[in-house]
Design brief:
Blueprint (H helix, E strand, L loop, with lengths): L1 E7 L4 H8 L1 H9 L16 E8 L2 E8 L6 H7 L7 E5 L1 H6 L5 E8 L2 E4 L8 E4 L3 H12 L4 E3 L16 E14 L5 E17 L2 H10 L12 E5 L2
Antiparallel strand pairs: 1-3, 1-4, 2-3, 5-10, 5-11, 6-7, 8-10, 9-10
Helix pairs in contact: 1-2
Amino acid sequence: MFLSRVRLNPARAGARKLLLSPRAMHGAVTAAFVDGVPVPRGGPRVLWRLDHNSRNEVYCYIVSPDRPDLTHVVEQAGWPTTQTWETRDYTPLLSRLQTGQRWAFRLTANPVHSIRRKDGEPTKVTAHRTPKHLLSWLLQRQEANGFEIVAKPQDRQRGPDDEYEVIVHDRHARRFGKVEPNGKQNRVPLVTATFDGRLTVTDPEALRRMLATGLGRAKAYGCGLMTLAPAD
């Protein structure tokens, strides 16, 4: 497994195209692999995420089974005169995970649920909207994926919805164009939210699997990639 990072230059037309269209960004990521992106069958897959740290500091992170070549991204949308891209072996970090460790994490996800408005109607996939429901979506998935969000001490809590060391931010709703297999043009809705917080490892193997395969839906469109960093 590999973890890569490339910085995009929002002043360039090529970068703006990628930043505005998850489909275009997906295509750029896919083109980074000589043999293409294999169809996932439960194992490691290619995941990517855009981090907007500031107006002019935007990074694309990629986790992948194979090493990517991001030359085309740098040439079309990056900073070719000063920076290329970084790729590191992800396996040592995955191998170090142990029960009880604490890590800082970031995750951009597509938090949705299926609802039925009336009896007899088919279920409809609907996005969560409030911070409370967005956090609930993540908490419902922590046990199965080998981690537990760190709870705040009671003296640091400011209200009933402030129990955990996690911030939900950068919620976006957008639509982008997609050509269906039958040639029909379609507008795909996508709602994303970013979670920053701290977690405790409860099942290292389950967490490794999730870090390599993603969490939630819309993985092809920049969702599901969780990254870890040493906790303060």
